[in-house]
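User: I'm putting together a teaching handout on how sequence relates to shape, and I'd like one worked example. Could you take HTH domain-containing protein from Shinella zoogloeoides, show the sequence you're using, and then write out its predicted structure as tokens right after it?

Assistant: Happy to. First the sequence, then the structure tokens directly below it.
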Amino acid sequence: MKRDDLAPTAQPTPAEFEDAVVWATWLYYEDQLTQNEIAKLLGVSRATIVNYLQDARKRGIVRILMNAEIATRTDISRRLAEKYGLEQVMVLPGQNDDNQAALLKALGAGGARLIERMTKPGDTICVSWGQTVLAIAEALDLPRPLDGLSVVQVTGASTGNKAFSAEFCTAIMARNLGAVSVNMVAPAVLSSAGLRDALMAEPVLRRQFDRISQADLIVFGVGALGPDSTMRIADVTDNAEIDEYAAEGAVAVLICRFLDSAGRQIVRDFDSRVIGIELNELRRLPRRLCVAGGANKTDAIRAVLKGGYATHLVTDMATAEQLLQG
């Protein structure tokens, strides 16, 4: 018999690792071998390696430590979900609130990633309007095409030529999802309630709102009432009208509807002239993704959450911490 015939087929445990559990742990975490590779080297089954690794954690041979910031964001996400009855919360890494462009880009990317995970073939996605919604639409990039998607506009078109108009947000999102774009052929605000009611009776708009009522997901941002707010620069209504809502306690704008700090809608003449989804209709949709952040929007976001208008939330770390305190 040759001497080589006596050589073991498995790799012997080094002297410094006489404990097979320690040696298996080293190979797995330091050398990054697979469990099957380690089993072959040690001449044991994969199930034995699984047991070794579990034993290593129990004995304190190895400890799994999460990045502190990730752990904090995960904890805040869970607490926010519990506080406001949300299904899922994504808290983005801390952003400099002074850099609005960076914050907007981060919110757009976060919202897009969540939509990509939530969307399935055949879904109908409703879209509002605004700078955040546009950032989401531009950031969308499905890993693989999904059949039968539709993106539906939920408010009429604005009179101003803004890049973040409802029709533009709808078209961009549909393009990037490979979906059918269903735009609303009506203005967002009419000159009278009677004219609004007459248009809403038209078959083309009835069909639009039927599709909205059957949607799987709606995506929206949140507006504040400050001087630089989207509502003030979007040519939907004038500053005097917005100021009157504010005087009655409005702190937030949600798809052209004004909310007080408790999330209750404040109704004025303007509301009777708006063509768009009603808030009670919004609440009936199964998945409602709110994407918003920044210190100037904290009160507005809180109002939306208190009103129960969202099931999912994407926001930044600083805003999330403030939302937990209110």
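A couple of points you could highlight for students: The radius of gyration is 27 Å. DSSP finds 14 helices and ten strands in the chain.
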